[in-house]
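hey can u check if this looks right to u? its 705 residues, i copy pasted from the old doc so theres a chance i mangled smth
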Amino acid sequence: MFSFLNSAILAAAATALIPLIIHLFSKRKMKVVEFSSLRYLHGMQKRQVRRIKIRQILLLALRTMILLLAVMAFARPVTESGYLGSHAGVSAVIALDVSASMSQQTNDGPLFDAARRQALEIVKNFGEADEVALIAFGGAAEETIAFGSASRIQEALNEIEVTDGSGSLNAATTHALELFKSASNFNRELYLITDLQANSLPDTTLKLAEQIDNSKGAFRIYLTDPSALHGNSSAGFDNVGITGVDFGGQLIEVGSEFTVGYSLQNYSTDNKQNLIASLFIEDQRVAQSDFSLAPHEQKRLTFNYRLSHAGRTSARIEISSDDYAADNAYYFAFYVPELFNLLIVNNNAGGEFLRLALEPTRSGVRHWIVKQVNRANLAGLALDAYDAVALLGIDQLNRSESASLSRFVRKGGGVLFFPGPSLTADKFQGALAEFTGLQLSDDIVFNPPGSGYYTLEELDYSHAALAPFAGLHQEGLPGYKFFSIPKFGVSPGVKTLARFSGGHPALTERKLGRGKVIVFAGMLRPDMSNFVTRSFFVPFAIRLAEYAASDLSNYDYRRYVGEATSVPLPKRASPNEALTLLTPDKQRIRIQPRANDGAYEVNLPPFTKAGIYNLRSSSRVVERFAVNVNPREGDLQSIAPEQAQRILGIELETLPVRDEVAGFLESQRTGKELWRMLLWLAVLALLIETVLSGDWFGRKAGDKA
């Protein structure tokens, strides 16, 4: 019983009819003319015609057989067993795990080095007639080398390195099965060389066996046992990793202490004592502490640091080294402007109080540059030159002004809105209500002196804008008096950060794109409240303005190796200039900004390396951000091959390590290919046909006569 590896060629067997067709059409009827002098040759003629007919039949059979043998040879018939023919060829795919977890240390060195040696040992078992492909999975992008010679794969294996990425064994196996659809040999072999990290497999059972077409030959999947790759090391591993860094929604300011929180996990079964964690700012160690972890314990610790300079800052936290170095460092970056620019659009509703709170003097050390304009100038202003805009006493917005402010906020700006006494329910509805996310159903009621007042209460001290004032819980809120307030209603998506007595919203926040709209419902006029005359007003106003002007989400962005993402462009970056992405491994990638929902962003290719990335224009760093190894890679726990077989839904055979590979594979391979034998038979038939068609024997007989 045999099958054909290239069965489509069998259609060419119809060419075997060509000699028969030629033979039939070559028979012509001849007119017989009797010559008396030739009568004695009749006997001789009958003998020659008989011999010619026999030769023609033989030539017809030979020519038909030559074509049939050639077609069958190219169709590559294969028997599953037998003694005739040559050993069936092999089409093999080597799927090599290059994810970060493969960098773990064993007693014999890095696990990846052992995996690569295993792959090279496998490659030695392929001959010239075999074809081999390579899939390196677990990097930023899956690297594939299509079917070719074993020597080419050997060169690639010698050059390939472990990455900082995360791998999916399911995706690699599925890709390999797709490659086998173009395989040309009877024996098809898939080699999975991986640490079988539990995180690399899906939670649900797959059915990969249904994707295999066994009619095309023998198919086997070999899996390298992770414990065998570890050599003589123990089954356990020693790893403590940093799983994240956070700022807790803080504002980072020059000269003020801030807190960096970092999360740790002990993945091993041993107690970890007296380990060291260090905080690095711009590659300088600025803080250090020790810690201990119980087996499998998770813990959050903090560093406190006082920043002495503004600008874009890169940082990292490092811990003591262990068997897996990739998660012993966690990178992060943040930006603190040297100066904040605030535009106050003042309609005589306390704008000067706000300016004096932020910019009490025009000389000395300044953190704010404040500009005041009248409402009439709002439409013609270039808002991108400012970090925040404060609207004081504005009672309505037209559609053009609302659209301009919305674009500014979506790009990352902040708007502060303080109502004035001229605000009415009719004026507020429309663009201003839509922009702030609030409703005002009744006009402001102006209470005469001595008729009562509202107080400020229920401040959300967990919010970044109010966190510095959390001590007021112990001291009690000062006696702020608000004689008249707008009684706003809050739309869905708007967060209330503080209330007046009676439950009316006092401070609200609406997120819009990358920016925010902050509304403080207390009016900044001494005849409307005593708030601006109290000392608390200055730090409160500064904090609100700093929060409105800052992009806190930029601190806590989490980007991992292998991800392709977009990065928002800072407000003052020009969208018309080409940018260059500088990677931690010194690569330079040209990037072009694109518009998105009123702002600009850059689409980035998959990150290939953990570390700090810089997005540069021709003259400066436009943005700086961090990329880390996915914390999932730190859990080095492997699953048993039997469990992997159940999850993948496919039969796996465990491959021996190194020296035993050759004999094992030889015993597993089956099939005999007959194409060489058929091709030689076709050549032999062609030689016989050549001799007969040339009447070589007839000429010899004539020569003797």
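The longest helix spans residues 42-74.
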